[in-house]
């Protein structure tokens, strides 16, 4: 009908000129609209408000704050800072009019009193600031008291770098930075920068002149970037720093000392501190609950306005009831058909209908599952104009896991932050990747383009300004000195003309004179200055890798995400800086004397002996003037960099408002608070809320937020404080908002059915949760939760010992004998068919973790099949089939350290699904003295394991699970062996102490002791004796390739025509056993005579007693828990021990059993190779295909688990 009509698409600003005689319909696409709320947020943050002094604190700590002096410069002499404590119980009240002025709040700001809000926000700010800064302040104080000390004097808590010199500046998109070189002489070690927590991007460092050493001067800087290639890997190393514009330094000759505090990370708190200050200038929703602790929680306004909801995404319709339009406030379904249990449905109702919803989820009860179902319902009822739902978690792993579930039913989501390890689903949805994948027009009126243009102009000005410090082979430009007013025109002219006269008289080289008159005027007084410090010649040992560097790198990447720019390297104009030339200092010549000399207009009349000092004076004055101009331009440049960031947020707002879900960490929320505020979100859901400090949760309360949902468990890990004193009851800073709300009577729901642990493991949690946790039927199913192989039905126990603990170089606790016992059990389990990835070794101490990693690296049994070794604090939210818990503490003083914290104990006890084995000093834990009013949780746990408490949950088979020996059961003979010492593991090969009565495929009897793997994997070690074509008898072992020892040349004999049925030649290929079953562990538990072939590549433990530290010798110092790092080196080492073996005589792991004396006739064996000679093990044949023999339990994990 409209065939003559042409449809035209274009931007609204385009002028269309249709062809004559043709009708044209113009469809105009409006350009993206600028949301001014982003810049309004930053402008409002600068608005002055009345209140406490905390509102005036700068973003980066000042030198006075770090040096602990007041603003007038006098020493405060206060070793303690007056901090208002947290308030776990009761409402917050005003500090009183005597020391605080009322804040000017919007009259509609909140139902809570303005004075109490200021008191609450101020206290949270001061506590967080103290936690972020105190350790650095104390580090500076220690260095000030001991200025000549080296790093070793500070027990690894302080990084100390001397000979720090400015060597360049960078105009980056984030602001002006300087590059410095520094020396590691006080460190006393070579640094593995890629595995070190030193100088992490975003961390604070403090510089002081080497002559001052914090007596009067300090400069606080932020690590701008830590590029390893081309910077940290140089000698001397280099690093980029951000410094306040009015404190920037340029002089390359000034020597500084740089100090960092290595335990904290200021950048993680920086944006939260700014958010707390900003909240005094905006409406504070939910203050009636958070501040006033009002227990009556109403429904959010958006639910009151639209109470009808479609619940069919989580509830199943039936013939009696449908759930498309449910009035959530009046007619919530009583007993709907759903996959959720009753406690989960109650939690779901609270999450959908209360503006402050608190959900407690004990271990394994499905916290994440309930959160996902709530999000599913919210999205099912999402309207086109609704703002995105905000999701936040404490860790990157948790938010990625949550978003991965959301991605199954919603594609419009974005992940803020740059440290997502989930590359298939989450990585493509990071803000940076979404931004790169979409082509958008520039936003009219956006700050970004104009700011970038001004920054480019300033770069040109920097080049001109700093040209006197450009590395060259000539002295200062005398005309430049004239331009800066340091020389008069007549002085400059006489300098030039005098140099010409010297050339004409042939008293100097014409090339030198043309280069600069100063080369003639100063003659031999001029000294060349190298552009950078000379390389240092020292042989330091390598520093041990930081075990926590991966977690810190996540924080680093979260705060310096790729959303901004690559945080490893600053991009932008780089200007190297150098002095080029100087002169020797003349003693006794003052600045006043030099000024008198410069009154002489003829420069050649200045005495030659004084000219060097004159040059030094001119050089210093020039640098002072350059510094003044540089600071002014840097300040303006940084302002434009700030506007560029605002402009980037304005562009990102257009992308984010089209999404339905936005996810980030709680740290990321603070960083992107301005951007999120512009989106006007109504719903914020925070997982892991109970292990997050209160302040980061508080700043999520944007003015537009109507509903805050907190999901967590305050019985598990509490928030972490860098300053341990703040965790004391008088401050209680480690009490989360989640826990504080529950303790103050705010209603919450608790999930009740656990889907993780078998009952005999779950019962151990009774002292913490009582009888509130029930078992889901899935954990009672032996098909889903089978017995642990080789343990004879003992799936949990406490192995008690009295082996003494020790301290490592970093003063962390470790227990070597206990660690060897734990690794021995891990080897035993692997021999019995358990994959290493299905075993987690937990410990409370990094020192023990380091030692465990060493033992695992030295184990020939576990190469390529290592268990995971982690600390308890980093394992909340995780689980595994089998957990081995190393408690470490064992002393005569009754000290138990971290074991005294019930929250940590709760996490440690609740990670295992099928098998849980605890190693520790039971007597110490049982008899320890507790504080008044504190219960001894370990005593109750040990009573349960001993079978004296919780009788109804006690296992019917061998009820007592508290031993001073570890009972293991042979799957072949049913024989139980008692393992009481690490050396006892050497008596078993995964089975028992009986001799193997089986025969090898060749017909010879097996010489090993009882083992759970097939004989096809055992090479025969008896003499062959086969007559060879040459007429001689083969003197090789039966399992080796035949060759004649008498004939020359010695070479393998072609046995093609002489097949030996018993000979199993190894061709270098990994293969499955022909006799092993391919059933899963489930079948293994049902029929214990079936062995996995994967166990064939696992010999018995070579654990030694504490007096035999042999295991540690072959281990590389690099303590990485990474197979790809350790395995190639170990394999190379082991292969080098086998150069003398015949071609084709590949060795399997069971050969180790003979060479370690494990065989029944090992004493009569010829050519015995000692374990020591082999460097800790022999060649290990790993059969990758056997991984299919172990059930892939990862596929069995569901949200319900």
Summarize the structure.
With 1201 residues, this protein is of the alpha/beta class.
Write up this protein.
The chain is α/β, with parallel strands linked by helices and 1201 residues long. The protein contains 33 helices and 32 strands. It has a 7-stranded parallel β-sheet with strand order 13-17-12-18-19-11-20, with helices on both faces. It has a 6-stranded antiparallel barrel with strand order 3-4-7-6-5-8. α28 (902-909) links the parallel β28 (880-886) and β29 (912-920). α12 (447-465) runs antiparallel to α19 (608-656), α18 crosses α19 and α26 packs across α27. The longest helix is centred in the middle third of the chain and has 49 residues, at 608-656. The radius of gyration is 36 Å and the shape is globular. InterPro entries: DNA2/NAM7-like, DNA2/NAM7-like_C, DNA2/NAM7_AAA_11, P-loop_NTPase, SF1_C_Upf1, ZNFX1. Residues 1138-1153 have a biased composition (Polar residues). GO terms for molecular function: helicase activity.
């Amino acid at each position: 009908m409209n065939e003559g009509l042409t449809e035209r698409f274009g931007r609204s600003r385009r002028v269309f000129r249709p062809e004559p005689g043709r009708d044209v319909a113009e469809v105009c696409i409006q350009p993206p609209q600028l949301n001014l709320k982003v810049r309004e947020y930053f402008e409002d943050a600068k608005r002055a408000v009345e209140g406490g002094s905390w509102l005036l604190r700068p973003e980066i700590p000042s030198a006075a704050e770090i040096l602990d002096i007041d603003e007038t410069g006098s020493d405060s002499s206060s070793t303690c800072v007056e901090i208002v404590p947290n308030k776990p119980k009761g409402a917050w009240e005003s500090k009183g009019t005597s020391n605080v002025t009322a804040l000017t709040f919007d009259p509609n700001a909140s139902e809570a009193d303005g004075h109490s809000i200021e008191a609450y926000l101020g206290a949270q700010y001061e506590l967080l600031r103290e936690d972020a800064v105190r350790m650095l302040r104390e580090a500076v104080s220690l260095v000030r008291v001991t200025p000549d000390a080296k790093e070793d004097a500070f027990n690894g808590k302080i990084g100390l770098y001397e000979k720090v010199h400015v060597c360049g500046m960078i105009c980056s998109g984030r602001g002006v930075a300087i590059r410095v070189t520094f020396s590691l002489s006080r460190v006393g070690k070579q640094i593995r920068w890629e595995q070190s927590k030193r100088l992490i991007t975003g961390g604070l460092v403090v510089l002081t002149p080497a002559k001052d050493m914090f007596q009067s001067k300090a400069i606080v800087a932020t690590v701008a970037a830590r590029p390893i290639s081309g910077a940290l890997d140089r000698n001397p190393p280099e690093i980029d720093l951000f410094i306040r514009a009015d404190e920037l330094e340029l002089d390359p000759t000034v020597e500084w000392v740089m100090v960092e505090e290595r335990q904290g990370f200021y950048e993680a708190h920086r944006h939260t501190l700014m958010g707390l200050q900003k909240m005094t200038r905006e409406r504070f929703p939910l203050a009636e609950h958070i501040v006033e602790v009002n227990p009556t929680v109403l429904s959010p306004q958006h639910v009151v306005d639209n109470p009808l909801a479609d619940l069919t995404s989580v509830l199943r319709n039936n013939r009696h009831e449908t759930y498309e339009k449910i009035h959530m406030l009046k007619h919530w379904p009583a007993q709907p058909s759903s996959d959720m249990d009753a406690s989960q449905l109650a939690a779901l109702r609270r999450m959908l209908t209360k503006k402050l919803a608190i959900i407690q989820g004990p271990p394994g009860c499905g916290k994440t599952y309930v959160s996902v179902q709530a999000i599913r319902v919210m999205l099912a009822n999402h309207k086109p104009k609704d703002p995105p739902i905000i999701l936040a978690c404490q860790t990157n792993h948790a938010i990625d896991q949550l978003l991965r579930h959301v991605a199954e039913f919603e594609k419009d989501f974005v992940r803020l932050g740059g440290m997502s390890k989930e590359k298939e689903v989450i990585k493509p949805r990071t803000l940076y990747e979404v931004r790169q994948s979409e082509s958008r027009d520039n936003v009219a009126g956006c700050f970004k383009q104009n700011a970038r243009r001004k920054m480019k102009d300033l770069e040109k000005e920097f080049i001109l300004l700093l040209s006197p410090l450009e590395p060259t082979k000539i002295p200062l430009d005398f005309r430049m000195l004239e331009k800066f007013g340091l020389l008069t025109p007549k002085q400059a002219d006489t300098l030039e003309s005098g140099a010409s006269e010297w050339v004409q008289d042939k008293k100097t080289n014409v090339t030198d004179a043309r280069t600069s008159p100063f080369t003639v005027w100063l003659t031999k007084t001029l000294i060349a200055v190298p552009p950078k410090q000379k390389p240092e010649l020292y042989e330091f040992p390598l520093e041990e890798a930081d075990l926590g560097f991966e977690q810190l790198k996540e924080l680093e990447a979260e705060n310096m995400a790729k959303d901004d720019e690559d945080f490893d390297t600053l991009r932008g104009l780089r200007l190297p800086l150098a002095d080029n030339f100087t002169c020797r200092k003349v003693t006794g010549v003052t600045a006043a004397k030099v000024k008198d000399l410069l009154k002489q207009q003829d420069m050649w009349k200045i005495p030659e002996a004084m000219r060097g000092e004159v040059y030094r004076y001119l050089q210093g004055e020039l640098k002072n003037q350059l510094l003044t101009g540089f600071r002014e331009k840097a300040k303006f440049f940084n302002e434009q960099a700030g506007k560029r960031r605002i402009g980037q947020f304005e562009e990102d707002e257009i992308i984010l408002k089209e999404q339905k879900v936005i996810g980030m960490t709680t740290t990321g929320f603070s960083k992107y608070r301005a951007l999120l505020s512009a989106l006007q979100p109504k719903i914020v859901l925070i997982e892991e809320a109970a292990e997050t400090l209160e302040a980061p949760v508080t700043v999520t309360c944007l003015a537009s937020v109507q509903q805050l949902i907190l999901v967590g468990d305050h019985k598990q890990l509490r928030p972490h404080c860098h300053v341990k004193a703040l965790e004391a009851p008088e401050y209680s800073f480690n009490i989360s908002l989640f826990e504080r709300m529950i303790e103050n009577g705010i209603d919450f729901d608790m999930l009740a059915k656990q889907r993780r642990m078998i009952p005999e493991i779950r019962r151990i949690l009774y002292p913490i949760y009582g009888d509130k946790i029930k078992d889901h039927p899935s954990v009672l199913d032996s098909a889903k939760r089978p017995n642990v192989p080789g343990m004879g039905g003992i799936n949990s126990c406490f192995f008690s010992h009295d082996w003494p603990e020790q301290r490592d170089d970093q003063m962390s606790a470790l227990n070597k004998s206990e660690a060897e016992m734990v690794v021995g059990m891990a080897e035993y389990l692997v021999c019995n068919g358990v994959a290493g990835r299905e075993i987690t070794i937990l410990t409370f101490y990094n020192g023990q973790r380091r030692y465990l990693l060493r033992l695992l690296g030295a184990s020939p049994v576990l190469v390529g099949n290592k268990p995971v070794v982690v600390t308890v604090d980093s394992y909340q939210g995780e689980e595994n089939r089998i957990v081995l818990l190393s408690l470490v503490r064992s002393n005569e003083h009754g000290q138990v350290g971290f074991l005294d914290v019930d929250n940590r104990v709760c996490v440690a006890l609740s990670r295992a699904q099928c098998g849980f084995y605890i190693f520790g000093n039971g007597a110490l834990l049982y008899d320890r003295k507790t504080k008044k009013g504190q219960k001894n949780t370990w005593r109750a746990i040990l009573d349960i394991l001993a079978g004296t408490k919780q009788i109804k949950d006690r296992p019917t088979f061998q009820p007592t699970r508290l031993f001073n020996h570890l009972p293991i059961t042979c799957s072949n003979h049913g024989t139980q062996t008692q393992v009481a010492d690490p050396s006892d593991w050497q008596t078993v090969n995964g089975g028992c102490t009986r001799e193997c009565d089986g025969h090898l495929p060749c017909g010879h009897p097996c010489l090993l002791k009882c083992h759970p793997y097939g004989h096809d994997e055992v090479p025969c070690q008896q003499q062959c004796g086969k007559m060879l074509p040459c007429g001689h008898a083969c003197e090789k072992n039966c399992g080796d390739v035949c060759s004649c020892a008498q004939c020359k040349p010695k070479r393998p004999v072609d046995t093609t025509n002489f097949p030996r049925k018993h000979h199993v030649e190894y061709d270098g290929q990994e293969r499955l056993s022909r006799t092993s079953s391919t059933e899963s562990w489930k079948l293994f538990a049902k029929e214990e005579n079936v062995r996995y072939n994967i166990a064939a590549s696992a010999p018995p433990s070579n654990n030694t007693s504490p007096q035999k530290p042999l295991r540690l010798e072959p281990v590389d110092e690099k303590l990485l828990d990474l197979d790809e790092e350790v395995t190639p080196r170990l394999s190379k080492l082991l292969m080098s021990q086998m150069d003398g073996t015949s071609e084709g005589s590949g060795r399997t792991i069971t050969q180790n059993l003979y060479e370690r004396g494990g065989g029944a006739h090992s004493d009569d064996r010829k050519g015995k190779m000692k374990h020591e000679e082999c460097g800790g093990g022999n060649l290990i044949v790993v059969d990758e295909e056997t991984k299919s023999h172990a059930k892939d339990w990862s596929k069995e994990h569901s949200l319900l688990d």
